[in-house]
Amino acid sequence: MTASGTDTIFSKPRYRTAASPQPARRRLLVAQDAACAVPLLDHPAPALLLSLGGELAADIQQERFPSPAALYLRLQLLLEQAEVGTRLYVVGDETFVWHVYRLARHAGLLGDEIELIKSGARRRLYCVHCATFQDIGEEGEANCSGCGVRLLVREHFSQRLGAYMGVCLDPSRPYGEDRP
Amino acid sequence: MPVVMKPLETYRDDFTFRNSPQAIARFPFPFPEDSYMYSVNLEPANGGASGSVFEHWFDIDEHYVSEMAERARVLERDPGRCLVMPHMAQAAWDSLEMLMEHLAADYPEHFELQRDGDRWTWINRPLGIEQHFTFGDPATLPCEPLEYITRQAQGDFAVLDQRDGDLFMDAGMVTCPADWSIKFDAGMSFKQWHAPVPLAPQMGVFDRALKYLLNIQVGQPVRRLNWTMTINPRLDTSSETFHEWGHERGLVTPENVARLVHLRVELQFMPRLPRSNALLFGIRTYLISLEELATNPAWACRLHRVLRDLPEVIADYKGLTLYRQTVVDWLSQFDPEVRAA
Amino acid sequence: MSALMEVRVCAVRQLTPVVREFTFEAAEGQLPGFSSGSHVQVLMPLGERTLRNAYSLLGDPADSTRYRIAVRLQDASRGGSRYLHERVAVGDRLQLSRPHNLFPLHSQASHHVLVAGGIGITPFMAYIAELQARGASFELHYAFRGRLTDAYVDELAERLGDRLHAYDSSAGQRLDLAALLAGQPLGTHLYACGPQRLLDGLREQARALGWPDGRVHWEAFAAPEPGLAFRVELARSGQRIEVPADLSLLEALEAAGVEVPNLCRGGVCGQCATRYLAGAVEHRDHYLDEAQRADSLMPCVSRGGCASALLLDL
After folding, report:
1. The whole model's pTM is what?
2. Which chain A residue is nearest to residue C206, measuring alpha carbons?
3. Which of A10, A91, B173, C57 meets the CB 3.0–4.6 Å disulfide criterion with A117?
4. Mutation test of the interface with chain A: which of B243, B245, B248, B322, choosing the one with the most A Cβ atoms within 10 A?
5. Which residues of chain C make contact with A22, given a CB cutoff of 8 A?
6. What count of other Cβ atoms lies within 10 Å of the Cβ of residue B120?
7. Across the interface, do C98 and B164 touch by the CB < 8 Å criterion?
8. Span A102-131, mean pLDDT?
9. Which chain A residues are Cβ-neighbours of C106 within 8 angstroms?
10. Domain limits, CATH 2.40.30.10, in chain C
């Protein structure tokens, strides 16, 4: 899932727009909104779709969960029983897909066995000064909800934290006001 | 020649850190030419001249006690600066063994290691430590083994797991980084954690460097020098504390430039850890004020030309933009070509 | 290139009619530590030339006071395995390179499947010591010919119990790759060492079953095979070198005093890749792609044609 290319920095994630043709014995789909899983249906035989809502008119087994926590727990149980040959496809905003990604890596899937499709603007920001996480949208600046420092949202991304790095925008005015 | 350690100096607040003439003489001036561009400047680390910073694998100098006190202060406030993922436990012991063996062999007046099978005794005289422990048993040390030994060794240390044809920063002790964060970069691959560096990725520098590092063999370490500049002799220029020190870049004036601005040189040293196959990535930082540096006019002249002609994107990345002109102006007095013009 | 170490042969054991085990200790000082999967190059003085073969270290990595290797006598030997089998005895001194690991355990695996064919068991002897010390989950699949290439099989049966799956071809037992790959939990990594057809079969089966290459690690038997004699010319120095049929290009260069960085000497690590400017090349490596082969070759295994001299950028 890492970027390569010269226009954007290497650590910034890149996302797929459709499933890859990699062979798999079992395909699991996870979607924030089931309707967004359409690009993943072209490929043969997804076994199961887990979602938080939405409608998908397709002839596959679907399970819907009232909360992300319930979905994560179900996925975790599925992966504990899963065998090599399983591929995971995740559709949602960056906060969601990277949470699922980290959960799946922890369960033993390789990065190469997980395909992420971005849908939605929400993403996670990590304040490098106080280690607080918060959700933001596409904006390039934010106030840290933990320490109050005005943060620049960098492109530098940590897959382990599932978050972009936020660093003090202007150290002469860390909290946005004039330095006394 | 035995290392004589100076009394406690500070790297913050009143900044009492100074280099003795001996420390200036052995400063690793990093520029072989009058200009600078990124390159794969890796070379075999086969030792160096007696008394030089290259002589031993792990250099100990007059600032040892002060630097270890500074590390303890950083860790007290932010224990997360030392991080060891569970699969790096063996590499942590490997690092401890390598550091203890080399420090004891190279600085017998300061360090001593006695090994009786797994029962080891470590003596660190400058810090007044005598530790009996069982090698491989973390419960017999006061803290995790990588943290234990790197609280007693100058410079930052990253420990890189080698897998999938890549290196991953899965452990480290990083309390004096040049504007990066171990807490954020932990777990990243070699090219991921270098992603913010401009120009070099497009030049293929990291592809070639990675290939070279993956093939480092036991007992055949490599090294390189890297550099940036720092305002005040501040060791902890981490991203974590940027909001506290970043404004100092705006404080440089023609009057204070020589004392305030420091050349910061990293001696990076990369040995293979034999038992774990991990790679130790030592980053030993040396600071020198422009005033101290100019006691060697050839260095001052060369630094003048390097900074004057440095590509803007590199100057920006290194955070020099605000004060570069003031430094160049001050250094120009040491450049005969400028004086002649 | 790398600093060599002098060792003394302190034990020799004939394990099977074709496999002989050698134990080395440092002639002076200490041997460096090593990680499981590491190999050393053994230097063998054969008349006026020196052959360097790579062998896996098979001892317990927790004990680096001694190194052990096991050598299979090769029928098509260029002399290396025959030299070790017939000429080397306890008390002899040999030179080794420092250990290097091109086949390490994967730190992220929670279950390790080891697949050995014949003498390919050697790296796994060190793996098993390491995995047992860690209390890690693993299984060994070992295919051999009984009473010929079944080195260590009794010892392994005793140590591993039902974690050992042995396949004796002389008793008609066959390794079923599809069965071995089926039903493995998500944290599994597979490691294979053996003849090329075993490795090829495994990779093909694994891919078909949805195993990405990142889960399958392999080490080929790394030894150059003889070919026809040919000539090379070095573009920079103007030196001309004859490469005899039973010497690799790398060995011929070394014999002529030309140092080329190298590690595996078997066409897999890429370290010795060298540019050539003219001449026909018989590429035998597993590292360079087609585009790279247009101007590079790996002298540890690849050879020139006999029609015209090969011009190297050295």
Report:
1. 0.92
2. A85
3. A91
4. B243
5. 210, 212
6. 19
7. no
8. 96
9. none
10. 5-101
Q: What is the dotted CATH code of the domain comprising C230-312?
A: 3.10.20.30
| Nearest chain B Cα distance for residue A38, angstroms | 31
Q: For the purposes of burial, counting CB atoms within 10 Å of the CB of B185, is it exposed (0-12), middle (13-18) or buried (19 or more)? A: buried
Q: What is the pLDDT of residues A56-98, one digit of tens each?
A: 887 889 999 999 999 999 999 999 999 999 999 999 999 999 9
Residues 6 or more apart whose CB falls under 8 angstroms from that of B5 comprise B62, B63, B64, B65, B126
- Tell whether domain A26-118 is in CATH 3.40.50.80: yes
Q: Is the domain covering C111-220 a CATH 3.40.50.80 domain? A: yes
Q: Is the CA virtual torsion A15, A18, A24, A28 positive or negative?
A: positive
- The answer to whether A108 contacts C188, with C-beta atoms less than 8 Å apart, is yes
Query: Is B161 within 8 Å of C35 when comparing Cβ atoms?
Result: no
Write out pLDDT tens, residues C193-242. 998 889 999 999 999 999 999 999 998 765 666 778 899 999 999 999 99
Q: Which of B12, B223, B224, B324 is catalytic?
A: B224
**Nearest residue, CB atoms, B181 vs list A6, A12, A128:** A128
Q: How many CB atoms lie within 10 A of CB C75?
A: 8
Residue intervals in chain C for CATH 3.40.50.80: 111-220
B224 noted as active-site residue: yes
Provide the H-helix boundaries in B107-168. Answer: 145-150
Query: Which amino acid belongs to residue C80?
Result: G
- Note whether B142 and B130 are within 8 A (CB): no
Chain C touching partners, 3 or more CB pairs below 8 A: A, B
Class of domain C5-101: mainly beta
Complex prediction ipTM: 0.93
For residue range B185-196, what is the model confidence (pLDDT) as tens digits? 999 999 999 988
Residue A6 near chain B (CB below 8 Å): yes
